[in-house]
Design brief:
The protein has three helices and no strands. By secondary structure, the protein is mostly helical. The protein is elongated.
Length: about 100
């Protein structure tokens, strides 16, 4: 196998992993939409600081256990959580409109 073949194989593997990562993020957002609908139906506040801290602490522990940069993973989860809050807020505000249409 040539160096170029090896590089192509590795990049192909990386592309596959990126697809899995993106699919997982989409599924996470879909789950967040379901959570937002639940919160809206049951009067649960959108922001749950204890849950946010738990998720970030779990990311930090994962980083430490797997030799990854803790700051990177916590910052990544900050971005993910920010997007989840945006999506939840959007879903919950739509749920509280008279039509209740979430499509």
């Amino acid at each position: 196998m040539t160096q170029q073949d090896e590089l192509h194989r590795l990049r192909s593997e990386l592309d596959t992993l990126d697809g899995t990562l993106l699919d997982t993020l989409r599924r996470r957002i879909d789950c967040g939409v379901q959570i937002a609908r639940y919160k809206s139906r049951h009067g649960v506040p959108m922001m749950q600081p204890g849950r946010v801290n738990l998720v970030k602490e779990r990311a930090a522990r994962y980083a430490a256990a797997h030799g990854l940069d803790e700051t990177f993973l916590v910052n990544l989860y900050d971005a993910i959580i920010k997007e989840m809050c945006r999506v939840e807020d959007l879903v919950m505000s739509r749920a509280n409109q008279p039509s209740g249409d979430l499509r």
